[in-house]
């Protein structure tokens, strides 16, 4: 794992999210878990070398951030937002989340298959967290503060974990660092607001959901890229392109690669990003008009 500060360690070179942990005087705090089972087991062993785990925080509900919780369950309290609880592991309507999690095993973790329980056992053990919260919540653990900031956009239950003593923030997938961004089930306007909220923090280190660790400056890069996506689809709509034409013609696949191990998903991501934004711009706006006999205002 990469050492970001004296207290922060993060893995940015594996398929899946960037799992990380922070050392405190009371014991380590984990942020997200590896999707790959053998890596989850190895990470737990590594973290426990630094003391008794105090808390595991999930930044979102997608498979790559939460599937590895199974190999931490019972050893540490798990905390996540109500939005994560409500949508546990769901990725996209046509993707079976459990099967999707296992897709990575043959190529990225062949030894992991022996560690995976059957579907029923997995869900029976992982249906709830120990701490489910709404809004923001702050934990003081040992000599470090963990401010869990509700930053919806990429997902409704998205949180950023701000550790002021380290001048660092774990953004989850609010930041896709130097890799293509998955927009398809997101609220892009909320996401931009989340970026602005994170940018207001006093930070030097940005640990993203995917890709290399960045400085605060990268928040503007992510924001700009999302505005480019919005503008490109808005222009397509203004030109009268159909949804099918927009999906076929609007793409940013040359800008960034897909994160490690999912290169085959590039077309899927581009098509669904464009389609989701097209739907946003063409969705009818509901307007409530005054009743015919309503008094003048």
Could you characterize the architecture of this molecule?
Strand 11 (168-176), helix 7 and strand 12 form a beta-alpha-beta unit. The longest helix has 21 residues, at 218-238. It is built from ten helices and twelve strands. It has helices spanning 37-48, 63-66, 82-86, 97-102, 105-108, 119-126, 188-199, 218-238, 243-249, 266-282; strands spanning 2-3, 8-10, 20-22, 29-31, 55-57, 78-81, 131-133, 137-141, 144-150, 159-163, 168-176, 205-210. Helix 7 (188-199) runs antiparallel to helix 8. The protein is 32% helix and 18% strand. The protein has 297 residues and is α/β, with parallel strands linked by helices. The strands form two sheets. A seven-stranded mixed sheet has the order 1-2-3-4-5-6-7. A five-stranded mixed sheet has the order 8-9-10-11-12, with helices on one face. The termini are far apart. It has two domains: 2-221, Ribonuclease Z/Hydroxyacylglutathione hydrolase-like (Metallo-beta-lactamase, Chain A, 4-Layer Sandwich), CATH 3.60.15.10; 222-282, no CATH class.
Q: Which features would summarize this protein structure in a list?
A:
2 domains; alpha/beta; 297 residues; five-stranded mixed sheet; globular
Name the average pLDDT: 93
β-strand number: 12
* CATH architecture type of the largest domain: 4-Layer Sandwich
Radius of gyration: 20 Å
The ordered H/E elements are: EEEEHEHEHHHHEEEEEHEHHH
How many helix segments? Answer: 10
According to CATH, the fold-level topology of the largest domain is Metallo-beta-lactamase, Chain A
Spatial strand order of the main sheet: 1-2-3-4-5-6-7
- Coarse structural class: alpha/beta
């Amino acid at each position: 794992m990469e050492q970001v500060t004296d207290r922060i360690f993060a893995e940015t070179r594996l398929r899946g999210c960037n799992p990380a942990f922070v050392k405190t005087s009371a014991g380590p705090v984990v942020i997200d878990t590896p999707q790959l089972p053998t890596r989850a087991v190895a990470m737990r062993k590594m973290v426990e070398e630094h003391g008794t785990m105090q808390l595991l925080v999930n930044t979102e509900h997608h498979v790559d951030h939460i599937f590895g919780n199974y190999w931490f369950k019972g050893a540490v309290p798990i905390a996540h937002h109500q939005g994560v609880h409500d949508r546990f592991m769901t990725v996209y309507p046509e993707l079976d989340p459990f099967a999707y999690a296992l897709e990575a095993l043959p190529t990225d973790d062949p030894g992991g298959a022996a560690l995976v329980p059957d579907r029923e056992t997995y869900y029976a053990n992982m249906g709830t967290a120990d701490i489910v919260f709404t809004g923001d919540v702050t934990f003081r653990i040992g000599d470090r503060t963990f401010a869990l900031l509700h930053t919806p956009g990429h997902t409704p239950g998205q949180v950023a974990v701000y550790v002021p003593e380290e001048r660092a923030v774990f953004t989850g997938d609010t930041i896709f660092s130097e890799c293509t961004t998955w927009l398809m089930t997101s609220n892009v306007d909320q996401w931009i607001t989340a970026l602005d909220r994170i940018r207001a923090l006093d930070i030097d280190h940005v640990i993203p959901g995917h890709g290399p660790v960045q400085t605060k400056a990268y928040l503007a890069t992510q924001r700009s890229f999302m505005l480019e996506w919005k503008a490109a689809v808005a222009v397509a709509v203004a030109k009268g392109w159909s949804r099918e034409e927009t999906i076929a013609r609007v793409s940013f696949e040359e800008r960034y690669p897909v994160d490690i191990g999912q290169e085959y998903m590039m077309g899927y991501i581009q098509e669904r990003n464009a389609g989701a934004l097209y739907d946003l711009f063409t969705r009818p706006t509901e307007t409530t008009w005054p009743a015919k006999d309503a008094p003048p205002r």
